[in-house]
């Protein structure tokens, strides 16, 4: 009986492997035709072929239609687990869309793809065992890495970066971003103006204090009447380099973000832009300045445009930027070791680009359950990106925060639950990467992170907040 059972299992397994092999060959032919149809260039066609031949879409695309054999008992559970894991780590849809349209692929997608190519972790071994024609060849690796480098050079490398660092997952800050001087001066005043709040006590600078890293140093910010917000205030420095604003990405632009707090009942609590404008327009000097910049007059749109223009100037170049621009002596050996560990431990697969963050949404607790370990009840704010998209896949996903000036911006994480930078680094390794770092490695990474502390050169028109009755 036992022998019969073993033979039966072997027959089923061999049959499954044969069926899956035939199905995969069929899928491969279809995938190659799809790649040719959906690619914007010969190079994009080659990359799409590599990704499709290795069935990356099976586990990493929200549009996947699995073959019939994926419904077999045992295989179904394995497929569901792989898909849930794959979608949590890396959704490939935006990268596929970029290959089809010719626009640059997202920076975080490039970094994640580069990591799995270099480490040869995809496709997983069990998947390759079943789909025996998958697996990156040396030519595949070379094609993918060359394409990643070309994308970075053409779309993301900062002008003036040292040639040897043009293909790094992180880049130096630009020296400046285009702005209008009149709007910047006006926006500076409005950023510091408490009259944007209902009771004339709170300004943008109250929660984004430029003297202490562009934050308020609190777990959650306090608004009008001492009301407490639901989430930690991110730094305003370098925020113009984020793809979206707020932890959940609900604002697509800096201007849209600037329009949120004044009308938020917990933060600045004004009931309308008319209420704010009625106060501001009584200031004849400010009104004259405003009309010089915006001849069409006072409006919420013009106020937020000016504030966003000012915030665009809040760049903080650091020693690390000097290093990436070619100053090889500006970092010491411990800081350089920390940067290598930063990359080796996958920190640079999410904290990418000029802002070392702000380019993607990542799930908090990929490798271990952060929220269960945190020790207090979950809140609506913990839902993160899902509060905006209503997509269950986005639950607990947050915009990756910038690491610039990170030594100044405690407490850390969206919930402000960590006050020590070493502790935050340790937690990220545990909950995002699934590693326990040696204390000496944590020290080195922290030493590197401190090289990201930069200096902002305030505009000559900088003003201090004023008190208003």
From TrEMBL:
It holds the Pfam family Haem_bd. This is Cytochrome c peroxidase. PANTHER family: CYTOCHROME C PEROXIDASE-RELATED (PTHR30600:SF7). It is found in: Cell envelope. The lineage of its organism: Bacteria, Pseudomonadati, Pseudomonadota, Betaproteobacteria, Burkholderiales. InterPro entries: Cyt_c-like_dom, Cyt_c-like_dom_sf, Cytochrome_c_Peroxidase/MauG, Di-haem_cyt_c_peroxidsae, Haem-bd. GO terms for molecular function: cytochrome-c peroxidase activity; electron transfer activity; heme binding; metal ion binding. It comes from the Bacteria. It comes from Paraburkholderia tuberum. One of its GO terms (cellular component) is cell envelope. Residues 182-284, 333-453 form the Cytochrome c domain. Keywords: Heme, Iron, Metal-binding, Oxidoreductase, Peroxidase.
């Amino acid at each position: 009986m036992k022998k019969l059972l073993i033979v039966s299992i072997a027959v089923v397994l061999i049959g499954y492997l044969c069926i899956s092999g035939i199905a995969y060959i069929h899928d491969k032919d279809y995938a190659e035709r799809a790649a040719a149809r959906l690619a914007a260039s010969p190079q994009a066609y080659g990359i799409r072929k590599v990704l499709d031949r290795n069935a990356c879409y099976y586990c990493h695309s929200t549009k996947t239609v699995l073959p019939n054999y994926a419904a077999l008992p045992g295989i179904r559970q394995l497929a569901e687990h792989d898909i849930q894991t794959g979608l949590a780590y890396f959704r490939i849809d935006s990268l596929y869309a970029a290959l089809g349209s010719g626009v640059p692929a997202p920076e975080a997608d490039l970094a994640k793809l580069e990591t799995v190519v270099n480490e040869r972790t995809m496709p997983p071994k069990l998947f390759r065992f079943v789909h025996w024609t998958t697996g990156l060849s040396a030519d595949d690796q070379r094609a993918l890495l060359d394409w990643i480098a070309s994308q970075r050079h053409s779309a993301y490398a900062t002008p003036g970066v040292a040639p040897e660092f043009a293909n790094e997952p992180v880049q130096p800050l630009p020296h400046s971003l285009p702005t209008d001087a009149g709007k910047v001066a006006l926006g500076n005043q409005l950023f510091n103006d408490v009259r944007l709040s209902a009771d004339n006590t709170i300004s943008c600078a109250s929660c984004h204090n430029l003297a202490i890293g562009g934050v308020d140093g609190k777990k959650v910010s306090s608004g009008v009447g001492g009301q407490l917000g639901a989430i930690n205030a991110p730094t305003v420095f370098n925020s113009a380099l984020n793809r979206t604003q707020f932890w959940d990405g609900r604002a697509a632009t800096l201007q849209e973000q600037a329009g949120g707090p004044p009308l938020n009942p917990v933060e600045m609590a004004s009931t309308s832009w008319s209420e704010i404008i009625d106060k501001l327009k009584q200031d004849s000097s400010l009104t004259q300045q405003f009309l010089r910049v915006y001849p069409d007059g006072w409006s919420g749109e013009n106020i937020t445009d000016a504030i966003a223009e000012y915030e665009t100037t809040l760049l903080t170049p650091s020693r690390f930027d000097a290093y990436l621009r070619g100053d090889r002596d500006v970092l010491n050996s411990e800081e350089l070791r920390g940067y290598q560990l930063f990359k080796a431990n996958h920190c640079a697969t999410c904290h990418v680009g000029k802002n070392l963050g702000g380019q993607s949404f990542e799930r908090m607790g990929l490798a271990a359950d952060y929220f269960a370990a945190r020790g207090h009840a979950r809140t609506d704010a913990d839902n993160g990106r899902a509060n905006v998209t209503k997509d269950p896949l986005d639950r607990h996903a947050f915009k990756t925060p910038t690491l610039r000036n990170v030594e100044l911006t405690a407490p850390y994480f969206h919930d402000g639950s960590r006050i020590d930078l070493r502790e935050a680094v340790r937690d990220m390794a545990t909950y995002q990467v699934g590693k326990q770092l040696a204390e000496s490695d944590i020290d080195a990474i922290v030493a590197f992170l401190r090289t990201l502390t930069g200096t902002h050169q305030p505009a000559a028109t900088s003003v201090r907040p004023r008190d208003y009755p």
